[in-house]
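> run fold DNA-binding transcriptional regulator, CsgD family
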Amino acid sequence: MVQNVRRCLLTKMLLAFLFIALTGEEAFSARIIPTVKSFEKTDYKAGRQNWDIAKDKDGIIYFANTDGLLCNIFGEWTLHQLEKGGNVRAIHAENDTVWVGGIEEFGYFFKRDNGALVYSKLGDLDGEIVWKVIAYENQIIYQTYLGLIIYDKATKKVKRNTYTEEFWTITEWEGELWAIATGGIIGVIRDNRFYHREAFTEQVAEVRQVFIHDKRLFIVTFNDVFVYDKNTLTKLKLDAKFKNVQFFTGCSLNKSTLLLGTVTSGLISIDYKTGDYTSISTAEGLLDNTVLSLKTVEDKGVWLGLDYGIAKVEFKKTIYPIFAKGATYHIKDIGNKTYLSTNKGAFISENDQAFQFIEGSAGQVWRIRAVNKVLYMCHNEGAYKIINRKLQPVFEETGVMDIARFGQSDYYLLSAYHGVLLVKYTQGKFQFISNLNVWGNPKLHYDAQADCIWGDTKKKPLVQFQLKNDKVNIRLHENMERFFETRAGLVFYNGMILMAYEPDANVFSKIQQAPFSHVAEKGIAALDIAENNGAVAYIANDEIKLFVTLPDGTVHSYEKFISSVKYDLIKADPFLNLYNNELRIATDRGVVVFNLEYQSSAIQEKPVITSVNIGSKGMHKKLFFPFKDSTINLMKGRYDLQLQFASPYSDYEFTEFRYKLEPYDKEWTEWKSKINKKEYTGISGGEYQFLLQTRVNQSIIKQTSLNINVSRHWFQNKWILIPGIITIFLIFAYVAFLIIRAIKEKAHLSKLAYEKRLKQEAVESKNEQLIQFLEIISHKNSFLQDIKTILAGMRNSEACRCVKKIDAELNNEKKKFLYHKLFSENSRELVIRVSKDYPALTDNDIRILTLIRTNMSSREIAAILNISNRSFDTSRYRIRKKLGLNHDEDLNSFIRNL
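> ok
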């Protein structure tokens, strides 16, 4: 039943995951292969030889180079020359000072607040070479073959001490100044005397270096390494391989490991307790096999000064190789042993020691399988049992790529070069039964629950083999593509999702439980799931995917970090697995390991802003880490800034950066892994903060910052801005006042224009009424005048009386008053203006003016005024004179334009 299958899977997933805490030097496994990064002269732009190395409190690395003092600030190289520009042979870094000794002079470099190194010469050398510089008590000691040059830091004076002996080298050991004399004498220098303590019992070659390891003094000579504990002097027992090796330098890496630099054999790492060693030479990436100097970086790695170039060797990192001797196809863990199947043969590692070749296995080893406690090797020449690292052939007819057994029977399937073969195990050999004619060299797996063997040819259909008596029935599952053997159990894949098989119903169903349900992607070629559901890893379309469930329940992806490994995958048949909190990936070079636990616990350091390049109007200066002042203060002006930054972690870690300059930038940049510098142009007065964040291996985010203060011009000062703001406010208020007043004036003018228009319309209306009234009066007067003329001709008293009444009507004063009132109200402004401008005009003149403006004819006006035309012409003449008109000016036009 499906439920039974799922219950089985869940039971396996509930098994506790055995986490191995890797701390201190215990993090080193003997099979971890160090990684090497080399630097050419063209990389650091200085001389080829590097005689000594020092590290200061800020993590900056210094090299005694043939061209001067070479400085590495987390990947950024700078060269500082002595006064005479000569060779530097020995250096010592202490606080902000680097003490240097060369061939022609000696002195020191002091680190200013801006990070720049400034040289001060203490003296010249006449035919001498400084081979060692150390700090002892309150002194700096420069050691030459002829004696010691001592600089007293309190008095700032230099003195030279000479001795009857000549010294190979000196060192401080447990509070005393020890020296090795050229005669093979070990002793202490005290009170300007050399006190003998021990002598070499045999002829000793030149002593090149001494160092302290595990509270003992190690003396490196050209031919041997000696160990002195203040009581006895013994020779270090080295592997016979190093019998003819010449040594040049040495140092201590950690409590159990010491490092030796050789003349022609590169670097040798020796576990002092076990005697195990690792050799690193040009074959592993060094540019030169002559190691002149060494300087460890905690216990993570070591810098090498070479006769040609520089190298950095790293032992600790999140992702690292554990095997690099051939393309690896399969990894098998059995107890405390790990087996590798490679194109060079089979290899074994026991108790995490270095991988050893299994004799007789040379060739293509495709898989190593454990079948019922028996270990089989699938080889291009057949199948072999592995018994105590010895090989016993069990099938030699053709090459075998995989093997599986039908339960407890004697029948097996071999995925061979010539097809899938059914064989029977008898008398210590596999006896051929039949060829099942299934091709494609399928991967095989026995499923105890379904009592069958599954065959995975990397494409559809999935093949199912079932044994019936001594014959095999073959069933093809057209919709299924692959199966995967995971730590959480056997799962099937239909080309998109993971499924479980129900043998009773012969059906496949989707697995709903996490993390199986999280995997839904085409093209999956390899997959593993941790027993505790903590991690899911798979390869799909040549991309490596890794999802880890963090303690807070969130799922984190490390896809980008491990993406660089994808180029080394064996694309035809990739392999990976999860084991002991590690992801192991088989590559065409060997095996690399991604340590999940180290990833989450070791990434703690902040990023480093290594330098700031400042330019302004032809001026350029460069400031360096560690920037003693938390703020870089710049004068008034506009500046172009270039900030360079780095991560203190290994180049092999996947490091991403993002940054912003507040308040210049509003948002963070996107995460970028290839960018380590940023430029800003035209930065003017203000206070800025450059924020830099790193995310190592897509894990914990760490941040650092640098303040930059550019002095403001007077017009940029915020206090100066207050009067300006007030002035702008007042100007704005005044402009607003003008605008409001203009709006009000416009409204007032609009109102006046509206009122004037209404008044004009009223005037025009009245004018029309007046004209109509005047026409009526004119007709009436004309009619009365006609009647008067008729009556006057009758000459009787009654007629005379009627004539008088008509005259009275025509000259009625009320009618004149009405004319005046109507015309004066209708032409009030005209009347006022004309009366003011022309005071000589009478009321009758003004009446005539208003009547002339109505465009009536002279005859009509005369009729209205009940005067003759001649009298009207006379009135017009008087008015012209009073108005002061010339003879050629038209009175009517003048009046209408008033």
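Residues 64 and 437 are 69 Å apart (CA to CA).
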